[in-house]
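[#protein-structures] MJ: dropping Transcription factor domain-containing protein here for a structure pass
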Amino acid sequence: MGLTQQARAGHYAYSVLHNSQTTQTAPIDARSFDWHGWLEQEKRNRTMYLLLLTDAAMVMYFNAPAQFDPLEIRLMLPADDAAWDARDELECASALGLHGPQAQAKNITGTRRPTQPGMRDAIRTLMEPAAAFAPSSTNA
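AK: finished. structure tokens for Transcription factor domain-containing protein:
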């Protein structure tokens, strides 16, 4: 099913905000935001992380062999709760900051960023003894 990678352009779950190559090279335009694609990719991300968590629990509690290597997962961490809990496209885009910082009034505890760090980058940061996440780069 390709859950360990983001959906490619043309896939029903493709989201420009989940594509790390696009978000690093250019600012995101609110008009190009496709809420349904973003929502579907976010569902795929959260499903994969649930499978990874279940796999880790099976390893720890039942001594089963691991089925996933966390470094094979090429997804961003799940989005802020304010964006995930949004009821419509406008509310989600505002929580992600696509309509400017003044529109993020409801997103007071999250990162207030349109994208999250990738899983591989987060693991590498956690494994470095002196490394730390930049402020507001991820939420609890």
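MJ: nice. The two ends are 28 Å apart (CA to CA).
AK: one more thing. Helices lie at 20-25, 35-62, 81-84, 89-95, 119-127.
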